[in-house]
């Protein structure tokens, strides 16, 4: 079964009476070159267990299953059950789990299904859950060595932005704290069915063993990061003062001690500067 052939995909979906859900952001890959490349670059191989989110019709799932020891595919839409039962019939190392990935205990799922394997995440993520899922996996320290995801192109650029650059935001800083992200390749909108209104990109995030900076308290650090980017057009002193409810004079003094110009905006703050400000302003908050 060639799941990169649009006619085949249409026939399978029609056979099971499947209808696309706009609210779930369902766009299935039908370009024959994308999923093999994505699966290969994800690091799927012997001794590797993969968590996939949103398998769709199973085209990426099959490529992962051909390489990895085991694939656990989490799907929310039960209307896809008969479709996936058919398309994945020849993949004995695939386990389908039905549910919302945002509500599942992923640590327990990996312990149960991928114990003893090098866990990675590989998925064509629906755009509306991109940041929440990635941040949740990183912040909760789900035991993955890497995350390889296909997301909206602009989201990929934002997730990979370096602190201290104009494209950086609070999400960018959080991703950089936990992982080393890089864009692997771009995917045009014509590679999907139905065709979305935007282009996509595949990025890989290799999870760090140690963060790039030392912070007194991670929760406090991310409170400061979020506050700094709260009002991007304003000076970071004002944003942090407002976001954390601290006197502007105290924040300005912290900038001076950290060697950061008081006129700096959030996009100009590098990771070490953010860490220094967190230590000066929030100390060992819990």
Describe this structure in words.
The protein has 286 residues and is of the alpha/beta class. The chain folds into 2 domains: 202 residues, Rossmann fold, CATH 3.40.50.150; 65 residues, rRNA adenine dimethylase, C-terminal domain (Helicase, Ruva Protein, domain 3, Orthogonal Bundle), CATH 1.10.8. It contains 12 helices and 9 strands. A 7-stranded mixed beta sheet has the order 4-3-2-5-6-9-7, sandwiched between helices. Strands 1-8 form a two-stranded antiparallel ribbon. Helix 8 runs antiparallel to helix 9. The protein is elongated.
| Biggest sheet strand line-up | 4-3-2-5-6-9-7
Estimated share of beta-strand residues: 15-25%
Distance between the termini: 54 Å
- The chain-level mean pLDDT equals 94
What's the alpha carbon Rg, rounded to whole Å?
A: 21 Å
Write down the secondary-structure element order.
Answer: HEHEHEHEHEHEHHEEEHHHH
Total count of domains: 2
Uncertain runs:
none
Shape: elongated
User: Helicity level, as a percent range?
Assistant: 25-40%
What is the tally of helical segments? 12
The CATH class of the largest domain is identified as Alpha Beta
| Structure class | alpha/beta
The main pleated sheet reads as:
7 strands, mixed
CATH topology name of the largest domain, in short, is Rossmann fold
CATH superfamily membership of the largest domain:
Vaccinia Virus protein VP39
Known CATH architecture of the largest domain: 3-Layer(aba) Sandwich
What is the β-strand count? 9
